[in-house]
Structures are given as C-alpha cells and as structure tokens.
Amino acid sequence: MGQDALGEFGLIARLTTGLESRPDVVLGVGDDAALLDPGAGAWLVATCDAQIEGRHFIHGVATPEEIGHKALAVNLSDIAAMGAEPLWALISLHLPASVEVEFLDRVYAGLRALASRHGVALVGGNVASTEGPLALDVTLLGRVRGGAAVPRSGARPGDALVVTGTLGAAAAGVLAFVTRAGEEPPAVGAAALRRAREAMVTPVPRIAAGQALGTSGVVGAMLDISDGLASDLGHICAASGVGALLEAEAIPVDAAATEVAHACALDPLALALHGGEDYELLCAVRPEGVQLALDAVARSGGAAAVIGRVTEAGDGMLMRTGDGTIRTVKPRGWDHLRRTIETCPIK
Amino acid sequence: MGQDALGEFGLIARLTTGLESRPDVVLGVGDDAALLDPGAGAWLVATCDAQIEGRHFIHGVATPEEIGHKALAVNLSDIAAMGAEPLWALISLHLPASVEVEFLDRVYAGLRALASRHGVALVGGNVASTEGPLALDVTLLGRVRGGAAVPRSGARPGDALVVTGTLGAAAAGVLAFVTRAGEEPPAVGAAALRRAREAMVTPVPRIAAGQALGTSGVVGAMLDISDGLASDLGHICAASGVGALLEAEAIPVDAAATEVAHACALDPLALALHGGEDYELLCAVRPEGVQLALDAVARSGGAAAVIGRVTEAGDGMLMRTGDGTIRTVKPRGWDHLRRTIETCPIK
C-alpha cells in the first residue's frame, strides 16, 4: 500500500497501534510531546521533529542561521504546547558530502542562539553522512510539574477557543517566496514581505505563553498550530471528543498575510485556517477562566484572542462568518496549499 | 572547508565548542550518552543515533525487521555503555514516497520486538517525507542511579582492559555480503556466513552486561565498540588521558570473522581491531576488581575477557603480539575497510 492512502496521521496510527507501554509513561504517542514520570514529582516532556532540505527549508530562501533556528523552534513549540519548560536537546545531523563546514557553523550558530535564549543545553547528538538531502533531527526534553501538563484531550463543550498571536503569515511567506519562486514577488509593501518571510523561516515558539496558560489552571487542552488552525483544531476535537464553532471575524489574521493574500487573489482567512506553520498556541479555556487566561498571556509578554467555542461532538467543526452564515470547516492543512514544496500528505 | 578535512569527530568538536551548559547537565556531548539530573536521585541517560539507507543498511541485504532491530539496537548499546537501564524511545522517520506501508509495518515489527525484550516503551516520534533515502533516527532515554554511570574518562594506568563477547563478526558480514556483493560468497561454511550476517544486521546490545559492570563498582571507564576496538580504545585513551597495551593473543576474535578473513586473504585480527559495529562493551577495570567484573558479566549471562591493560598517556596505544613484538596500534576504524559503502570519514 502506498503511503498516500493513509496520510501522515493514518500511518502513525498504523505503526503505533497496540504499543506496549510502561507504568511511567503518562502520555505516549499522539500529543505534542510525550509525558514521562521519572518519579521525581516533575514529569519529563519529550518531543522530536525533523527539518529536511526541500521539505521544510530551501537553500537560498532560508539562511543557514535560520535553518538552525527553525530546527529547534519547531521543537520548542511542542514543549510550549504542553505548558512545559525546555531543558535539553539532542541533534542528529544527516549530512550530504557537499555541505561545507562553514555552512554548518552558521546552522549551529542559529540553533545555539535560540537555545541560549531559552536556557536549553545541547547535550548530545549524532552525525551521519547521507546521499540524500541535509536533515536536522532535533529531540528536545523538558519538564513540567506533575499533573500540570496540558494534553489535547481535555477540551469540554462550553470552553472558549483561544489562540495566541496572529495566523497566516508563514503561509504568506511560502506563497511569496516558495510557490512563486522565480516569479515577481507579490505587489505588497516591503514590511509585509519581510514579516511573511520571517514568520516562515524564524518562527517564535510561545514558551512563556505556554507556561502561563499551563499554570493558569483554566486550560483544558492545548496544542501548537503547525498544520494549520483548521487541521490542529481538528486534532483537539478528535482527541477530546468535541466539536467547535469558530467566529470568522475573531480569527487574528496577520496583516502581512492579508496583504500577500490580496495580492495573490486569495482569501486571507484561508491562509489563517489552512496555511500552517504558525507555531502559535491554540487552547480550550474553561468559560469562567477566559479573562484569567488572556491576562496570563499578556503578563507573559504575548497576545491572545478568543476565536470561538467548543461544542458537542455531533456538531462537527463549524465557522460563523460576518453575515451570520454558518459553514463547515474542513480540517485540511498545509499540503493542499503548498503546491511546489508539498504534494504528499506527509511532510 | 570540506567535511573530510575534519572527519566525524573533528566536526562534532567544532560544532559543539564552547557550548553553554546548565547545572543539571552531568555529562554533555562527547560520551556514549548524555547524563542529565532531573533532581530525583536517578540520572536520566539520553542518546540518539541514525540508520540511513545506503550507509547503515542496504535493502536486500537486511530484511525490514532487521533494519528496525538495528535502529534500536545501536541506541540500546549506547545506554548499555553507561551501565544504564533503557526506558523510552522516540523515532523520527524520514520517508521516501516509494516505501510501501507493508515494508514499514515490518520495520516497526522488528523495532517493537526488540523494544519489548528490553521493556522499552515507544513514546513519540515524527514522520517526514524526504526526497532522499529512508532513515530512522532513534532517541533513547534511560535511567541510572546517580553517580553510578560509567563515562569514558575514568580509566587509570594499571586498570585491566576488558571486552565482552567476540569481535570482528559484523565486519566479516560486511566483507561477505556488502563489499563483495555480486561476487561469489567467500568459501566458508554456512554457519560462519550466517553468524557474520547476523552480527552485521541484528547486533545484540549488552544491556545486562553493561548494568552488571556499571554496578560492580570496579569499572572506571566504559564504551560500546561501534567504530572498532582500536578506534574506540582511542576514545577511552583520549578521554582518560592514558595509553594502552593490548595483548594480541587475548583479543577474542570471532570464529566466523576468522573463517571469512582467511577466505578473503585478510588478517582476522584486523577485522577485530578495525572492523567496527561489534556493539560489545570495552571497559577499564580496577586491577583488584578484575575477577569480580568477569563474574558479574558471567552472572548476567554474558562472557568477557581481559585483553590488555591501561598504561601512561606517553606510552600511546600499543599491542604485544604472540612472539613478544610490540607494535603501535592506529585508532583507525571502519571507514578504511568498508570501501564500497563507506568512503568518507563520517558515517
């Protein structure tokens, strides 16, 4: 059977069905990160994610420093989504013979600068040569107070849906710099182009906001938006057994995404819903705790907005537009948009 | 600068020089695994290693189950070399579009069978598509009693050098099945060919022996032999600031390695010294504790032999042959032998 028939999530489910566990595994495959109990009061949080040339970055679009930054940032984002503190990283490098040492120096400089900013120590790794593309596999370990981690599975009908930051800018970056590579850049201002590019190549993991939300006591479910708001909201709905109603006008579409989308004759909301790689946090907040959660994010230096609410599972995933119309939201993500760099359902 | 100018270890040193650490990092880059102190009395042990098609395995030589087995086994071996207990694994899969789901089922079956044998839970991972070869990046976490882990750096002049199992069989497998692919197999018995192939594709990590040696209290330094006895002994000498004298006649050359080497007109001892991928343990044992260490390995179900002793740094790495001649041992490993699948110093 071809992989496309299953897709990324189907394949993971197939390969991990009926896994033997251990009593010290609090949460295994299927969330942003694993939760492990070494018996010390705090839980260990573990995640890994790869950045592969041609799939997750493209030479010439991202600088070496940006490639290193993003390899760690996408893992920090998963630790943030558990409300945890990042601690230790291991890096497995798959290295084509053509890569110069000076290029790697710069990749590691970008990675180390971000690690330093978050107090993460690089403690191990591996270097292997490959006939394939350059790849960086980062494993990141973190810590969270036992019981305080936020899984995807705790959303309840009536919860408010809250998202940090703005959405769609990374997808705008792909539209402007990857899908249209070789063409004229879209007719938008330099500031919007710069913001879209930065969102794509140097995402900012929401570590402080994640910890603020995790310790607020009012967040039932949380994840980071890597595949796109619609797809990742679908993960919360599936894991929690709930539905959702989004308010289209409340979704914080990034201004640069709006500019780029208009220049490309696309709906900005489509970038925010299905673009992906935003690395913002999406969470389900108990109705009585909404102001508390918003204040906690603000105190951490971030911004957050209520974009809808959690409903009963039978309602599915819906969105109310400005004129009151309610339509179904499909949990499709990045790969349908990202034509030139993403054609199969596994990225 | 090209990578070859630095080699694997030079490159790692360059990329990790002056790393910022944290007070809870007991041992960072440069040993078999990192030692991390989550503050629970026990230390966390973390390691990662990749298996990449065309470098570490070849379709048609190894079965899918064997590919999965080896991806975990090489990581288990690093945990064994710290005297630790393996607990949790994360797997990052780099997946070319051509790989069928049924092939992956079998890879994971091999991996899960070995995980089950050692009580390891698969707790997370990632799947990414690649235009390059199939690769499995495994991160393995384990636990060891605080202070009881065995680094590479604690060997002292006068210590005995002890190795588990036999050496050279995996290199014989490469000679018979990879370097000579397409040629007639070497003229050796079926049992020797089978043993050489098994050593190459399904190495047995010495978890029980590693824990027995680690808790014996008489082992000052330990690592697993992945690059070859000479190269890995070089690592102990460099990390501990010592020299070594090997007794050629005491080195447990595998019988299959001897058969295959003779059929290929090679010196069996060269396979044992420079072949690599043995995944046996090499350790420096305090002189008064040698019998205790050998008994501990025997009780764990393994075998071990004294193959020389640790000397002063100025003596370098030497070997005494049967006729009393003493010659220098170069710390060269696998890549010089493995011509067809290994031509650069980074594997």
Structure description:
Two copies of one chain form a homodimer. Chain A has ten helices and 13 strands. Chain A is of the alpha+beta class. In chain A, the strands form two sheets. Chain A has a seven-stranded mixed sheet, sandwiched between helices. A six-stranded mixed sheet of chain A has the order 1-2-3-6-4-5. In chain A, helix 8 crosses helix 9. Chain A is globular, with a radius of gyration of 20 Å. Chain A starts with 6 loop residues before the first helix and ends in a 19-residue tail after the last strand.
Question: In a few lines, what is going on in this structure?
Answer:
2 copies of one chain form a homodimer. With 347 residues, chain A is of the alpha+beta class. Helices cover 33% and strands 25% of the residues of chain A.
Break the fold down into its secondary structure elements and pairings.
Two copies of one chain form a homodimer.
Chain A: H1 7-16, E1 25-27, E2 34-36, E3 42-52, H2 64-80, E4 85-95, H3 101-117, E5 121-129, E6 135-145, E7 160-164, H4 169-179, H5 190-201, H6 207-215, E8 219-224, H7 229-240, E9 242-247, H8 255-263, H9 268-274, E10 281-285, H10 290-299, E11 304-312, E12 317-320, E13 326-328
Parallel strand pairs in A: 4-5, 9-12
Antiparallel strand pairs in A: 1-2, 2-3, 3-6, 4-6, 7-10, 7-11, 8-10, 9-11, 12-13
Helix pairs in contact in A: 2-3, 2-6, 4-5, 4-8, 5-8, 6-10, 8-9
